[in-house]
Amino acid sequence: MRNYIIILWFVSLFSCGKAMEPFKVSSPDSDIRLEFNLDENEAPFYKVYHKDKLVIDSSGLSFDFKNQASLGAGLNVLKTETSTVNETWQMPWGEQTEVANHYNELIVYLEEATETKRKFNIHFRVFNDGLGFRYDFPEQEHLQEVIITDENTEFNLTGDHKVWWIPGDWDIYEHVYNESKLSEIDALSKRDHPNLSATHIPENAVNTPVTMKTDEALYLSFHEADLTDYSGMTLKVDKDGLGLTSELVGSERLGGKVRLAAPFKTPWRTIQIAERAGDLIESKLILNLNEPNKIGDVSYFTPMKYVGIWWEMHIGKSTWDFEATQDMTTYTQGKASSKTHGANTKNAKRYIDFASEHGIKGLLVEGWNTGWNQWLSGDREGIFDFMTSYPDYNFEEVIAYAKAKGVEIIMHHETSAAPRTYEKQMDEAYNFMKKHGINSVKTGYVGKIIPEGEYHHGQYMVNHYHKVLEEAAKKKIAINAHEPIKATGKRRTYPNAIAREGLRGQEFNAWASDGGNPTSHLSTVAFTRMLSGPIDFTPGVFNIKMDGYKENNQINTTLAHQLALYVVIYSPIQMLCDLPEHYMENGQIHPMFQFLKDVGVDWEQTKVLDGEVGDFVIIAREERETGDWFVGGITDEHARNLQLNFDFLPEGTSFQAVIYKDGPDAHWDENPTDYAIETMDITSKSTLDVHLVAGGGFAISIKKN
Ligand code: NOJ
Ligand code: CA
Fold this sequence. Notes:
Layout: E1 10-13, E2 23-26, E3 32-38, E4 44-50, E5 53-65, E6 68-71, E7 75-90, E8 98-112, E9 119-127, E10 130-137, E11 145-157, E12 162-165, E13 178-181, E14 205-206, E15 210-213, E16 219-225, E17 233-238, E18 243-248, E19 258-261, E20 264-265, E21 268-274, H1 277-282, H2 285-288, E22 304-309, H3 311-314, E23 318-319, E24 340-341, H4 345-357, E25 362-365, H5 395-404, E26 408-414, H6 419-435, E27 440-444, H7 459-474, E28 478-481, E29 497-500, H8 507-511, H9 521-525, H10 559-568, E30 573-575, E31 584-585, E32 588-589, H11 593-598, E33 603-612, E34 616-623, E35 629-635, E36 640-645, E37 655-662, E38 675-682, E39 687-692, E40 697-704
Parallel strand pairs: 22-25, 22-30, 23-24, 25-26, 26-27, 27-28, 28-29
Antiparallel strand pairs: 1-7, 2-3, 3-4, 4-5, 5-6, 5-11, 7-8, 8-9, 9-10, 10-20, 10-21, 11-18, 11-19, 12-13, 12-15, 14-17, 15-16, 16-21, 17-18, 31-32, 33-34, 34-35, 35-40, 36-39, 37-38, 37-40
The protein binds 1-deoxynojirimycin (NOJ) and calcium ion.
Calcium ion (CA) binds near residues 174 and 482.
């Protein structure tokens, strides 16, 4: 057993009312130090130092409630406890097999000096890669049922840092990342958001993970861990003080933010701290702040690549609805269409043949079930049926055909943001899946949440997404949610939470009227959204200009950049999203497709070789079991020359490297599909010069000779 835990408890007891020395807790390597104290109003605050330099200045911690006095001043510290944990645990699937969980903890027990003696405790955990803290409200007489109207957790920064942010939208994370100074964040200017059916930005706030770089080149990223029975946290910008304050997503039905009954714990508020941008990606702090696996064996889910009847709807070749009366490419309704319904038996078999021929394990079929004719209309309650297929889709026949060809069908449940309709059918729908041997489902929540007054990121929906995970786990089903709640590391506890969207995915390139995802999109996503967990981005477009389909849309990357995304963007399920015919060239499978066949999806270890937020990133990952390595690198709109060294490979072994790269004349806009493929023998001592064109990238497969 390699796991070991050392717990050392120190309990200190205090008398009330005296000025105190701060309570301190440091990271195991002593680089990060957190200090906690009470100010002259006996109000709690904390500070954070990195190598003795202040990175979070005095920041308050308090709560406002409906029909009850605020909590956060006039407090006594009853006692504190400290402990150390040092253990390793294993991921059933993931970016790496073994995860080190090493931190020092300080728990501060607080109680009001008034007669009611309301109390709460704060747990601080400090790791080498950052820290997390959560509030813990024990059972008590004078704080029972509460409606939290505001959690006021402050993060006061020490400078006007450079920030990569998306607006604090209560309904959707599908925004382009912005780069600005902290004081120049202007989330309200992002309210006009094309192509989405739900968006709500009430404050000048940002969503998390939000990543920053200080003038001293220190990287900070703020997020939350273990978001359970609570509302998602946005961070409101306080322009004068260069500070951020938690602003929870609200509910008009509740007239507040969160309803709870003590005892309860809030999610962890997390601050990742790194000297190298790539260390943010390697950090497992958010996962470590979640509870261990509580659903047991998840071998019913195997990490895999998949194709889908999907992109063809987004580029307008076919439709989700059987009647084909909607122009779904812009998510609008009513336009008569000459298109056909995509999810028909014949088409499904065509995709199955392609997947089977090329060793791609999964097939997602969207638009197979009834309800799509009304999914965008006002009345979406009770519309979707998760057991009934359209007449041209013979469910049994497709399942049998897929089985015979060794392909696994991935279920699709678009709920159109009507969670009550979904919850009603959930049990039966999951039984229906299992009866047909289907082990995973992509869910979707397009539209304004029904009932009105709730938002995608509020407590009501957090509880819905959680219920889906729990019910699915009982039936041995894995979940890939679109329009989800943000990832907060719950995949550690519920490893049937395999992936999610929660960002501007590839689909925006098909229909967004704003020019699609910028060239720098994924070099930013890797250091922001990806810090929270796996992303179903759906890479792999080969018909970059969407020739034959969309005149005004394109992918703003080169072909080689698309290949690199299978390594750069982590997910245990990776879509090969383009149409089978687009993976062909002159009647043959495209030479660059070989990388998509070879690339792994489940990793023994991950190393970020280099990178800078919003500019470029290079990641190497070792595949589990085979020991093969894959490297992916992408750049923004700037061309770059990079020198790779392979010192991550085991010494003394010879490997064959196949390098898939931008052709000499490639350019994301002018010539995106120019490519070159090169093969060479390498060892851990080899080096390689790679040129990335504007919007370009490279991918390397490295196998033992
Ligand atoms: C939005 C999802 O992100 C997309 O992948 C899906 O095709 C549509 N909803 C329809 O469910
Ligand atoms: Ca989406």
